Amino acid sequence: MYQYTEVDQKLVDERVAQYRDQTRRYLAGELPDEEFRALRLMNGLYIQRQAPMLRVAVPYGLMSSNQLRKLAHIARTYDKGYGHFTTRTNIQYNWPTLESVPDILAELAQVQMHAIQTSGNCIRNTTTDPYAGVIASELEDPRPWCEIIRQWSTLHPEFAYLPRKFKIAVTGGPEDRAASQVHDIGLHLVKNDAGETGFEVLVGGGLGRTPVIGKQINPFLAPQDLLSYLEAIIRVYNLNGRRDNKYKARIKILVNAMGIDAFREQVEAEWADIRESDLRLSQGEIEKVKAQFAPPAYEADATNNDLHAQLTENEEFRVWFERNTVQHKVAGYRIVVVSLKPYLKAPGDITDIQMEAVADLADRFSFGEIRATHHQNLVLADVKQGDLLEVWKILHANNLARPNIGTLTDMIVCPGFDFCGLANAKTLNIAEQINEKFENVDYMHDIGEIRLNMSGCINACAHHHVGHIGILGVDKKGEDWYQFTLGGSSEADAALGKSIGKAIAADEVANTIEKILLAYIDQRDSEAESFLEVVRRVGVEPFKEAVYAADH
Amino acid sequence: MPLIIDRTPVAEDKWITPAEDQAIPADGAIILPLAQWLENRDALAGREIGVQVNGDDDLDQVLALNGQVELIAVEFPAFTDGRGFSIARLLRRAGYKGQLRAVGDVTQDRLAHMERCGFDALQVPEDRFKPEVLNAFDEMSVRYQGGASVTRPAYPQS
Prior knowledge:
The complex is a heterodimer of chains A (about 550) and B (about 160). In chain A, the strands form four sheets. In chain A, strands 16, 17, 18, 19, 20 and 21 form a six-stranded mixed beta sheet that branches. Chain A has a five-stranded antiparallel beta sheet with strand order 1-2-5-4-13. In chain A, strands 3-14-15-12-11 form a five-stranded antiparallel beta sheet. The N and C termini of chain A lie far apart (about 60 Å). With about 550 residues, chain A is of the alpha+beta class. Chain A contains 17 helices and 21 strands. In chain B, strands 2-1-8-7-6-5-4-3 form an eight-stranded mixed beta sheet. Chain B has helices at about 35-40, 60-65, 85-95, 110-115, 135-140; strands at about 5, 10, 15, 30-35, 50-55, 70-75, 100-105, 120-125.
């Protein structure tokens, strides 16, 4: 993974000192509330319902074992012993004090980490595929490009006060595990007719109040032009995006208002002026960053192992293997997904002890690296097949091996009303209700892949619009109600879910999901037809009937 | 109002910004809003003129000021309004060499960004000025991006 240079280290160190002084001036009454608010947000600090919340950046989801141990230490020392991984592959702490944040940042800087631009109206953490570099279908490892974008976007002097937040995702192949089509900018590594690799560029995707799938602004951008093109898009947005209404300030609103063709015209006009500038990446610069993501030293004899026998002997291990591991591009290796969706725990939460356990596993079995995923799990990307049983045992002992990846209980859920100052409704109690309902249901095993996303408000942090089943918590006269959408997807076939009708009472959410799943089983042609495929084929009507039948 | 030019507070400022309802002074160096200058430019020929713009002004008209006036003041109506940063970059890129002055909500935590985008003059409101605001320029000594003066980003240097 990328190793900091002196420049990188100096930048985070100086940023800590700068933020320490900003905090001091605020506490001394020298900085107005509103102004400190913008500054602390640009350093990931929110003031929440219970306490401040600090969001620490995990650039494109990649961490070393040492970094994860530091995150565990921070959870133990400054928080209540746990953290929460987010869909932007960052980690949030829910209980630090405002005064301790400069110290936390200083600790993070010791391991090349920070909270820069994890919130605020600026360019946020760039996200990518958690299987980058290890999945066979990939055209090219997207992480060097993420790192180049990280550097370019970090403390960019012109783009620190954009109309609204700005999110970029990069994918390295045809599969999309980064929800790139619902980002302000989505970058897809593609090949053109001449066989050269470049980027398809999408712009103006997003969720929140106005969910939109991104539109193609450029079918093929040469890689050396990446930064000038990004700069052109964001400059046009900075100058023209709406600033009178924060709900209409994202780039998607501007793109929709102008139309993609007029927007493209402006971007291309601006780009023409800067394309030949120093923003052009030289091949040498690109190669230098790529070298930092070179594949680890895979062992040639990794295929020699007892995996087959172990799977035959151990049913529980076999179920986990089938659900929570993924084929690796190198023979003899396997990608392991560490489930942060244990029974009756908040999705994405992880304790300090669990973090230490995963860090140790990474050191022993996966070249010392860990990835965080958009689905709020962790990944050990390079585990030898012969080590899988041992890895599983340790994960199992740490409550990190629930075999539920890609299933109903592998939900994306925001912290909701229990923690978040923006939320309208609770989510964690509903997640529990769903866990309790489906923990011992036989048909769950043949339901196949299903994505459930649940947000506690319209800001859609849990991407409910693109869940196969999307749930949005709303407040009606002081009570929590839940609106359902079906048929959404954040992958290559991205789509926004369609509403099935009026909101459901809190205690009926799990029962409603059951009705939907039974309707799916009823409607499908065979077990091979997935939930999403069925919804797309038959529409939402049969599901509506199943859910609201009793009302007729 | 404290004025910082090239990182140094200056006591003297010859430029006068007349109040909105005030008639254009008969002499002296004056800063006028873009619309007012466009209306009166013929009558003002030969005067020392600065023009104040903001993000609502037509960008082509703003860029056309290059070569026409001695000073361009870019207004930051609120500290959250970042359009002025891009306006500065574009003016410098267009070759504007005169004074580029940030006015409005111009305070410590944005001064370094403003300088990097091409402002050489920063007008800080009286109640927000202390000598310590000058520290802002040295808080961050490294950078990844180019700016108005240095275009080379950091990574090829490392």
